[in-house]
Amino acid sequence: METNFASRKNRILAFLLDYLILTIIIVLPIIFFMMNEKNMESALSFSFFAVWLMIGFILYILKDSIKGASIGKWVIGIGIRDEENLERVPSILRLFLRNLLIIIWPIEFLILAANKDKQRLGDRLAHTVVVKVTEVSVWRKIFAIVSLTLISILLFISTILFTIKNTDAYETAITYIEGSEEIIQEAGGIEGYGFIPSGSVQINNGYGESLFTINIKGKEKDVKVRIYLTKTPKSDWKVQEAHYE
């Protein structure tokens, strides 16, 4: 009986789904960390990055530990099995060894493309194969890809917005706007602010620069304020320029 190996296309698709999921898990906390000015000024920032990246690497290595299938493989309907017994799921140690070689993924993909049994180096090291476990429709694959992509985009945008609005620089900008009689008069009073502010916060060795574009919802008319702030080590943010239209 011929072994029903998972196609290279499905394996690459599962890999991309796993990569997307792990990117969300790893990148979003880093964004939160970087947008906190006190963290970026701390000597522990490098340690945080190193530890969090190591956690992400370990998560990737152990991603197939549940029944030989990661989330991506489960969505696509494929799984890892012992090459001598296709009913047996390899041990966690063998799955660990298999994924360890993903650090040389360009070579792994080349070997996967050339190997007749569709094994990469990690498979050959752990004596495993990837097989089709369940039949999955094309629509399920498309739905999974589109859903994960949209969720990733929404999470990324939400994280950026949340972190920007919680920086000391942004709070200083809002305080300045609410204390500016000129801007308040132009808007006829402030009712609120736009949901999506644009801007950036950059800090290096305690010196910082921030530039925001903040939309004000005024009682008489809406006003767009562009505001530039700076800071020096051990000091608060200060507004240097502010223009509105």
UniProtKB/TrEMBL annotation:
Q: Where does it primarily localize?
A: membrane
Q: Membrane topology per the record? A: Multi-pass membrane protein
In what residue span(s) does the RDD domain sit?
6-126
Q: Which organism is it from?
A: Metabacillus fastidiosus
Residue stretches spanning the membrane: 12-32, 44-62, 95-114, 142-164
Keywords from UniProt, A to Z, are: Cell membrane, Membrane, Transmembrane, Transmembrane helix
Look up keyword Cell cycle and say if it applies.
no
Specify the protein name.
RDD family protein
Q: Where in the cell is it found?
A: Cell membrane
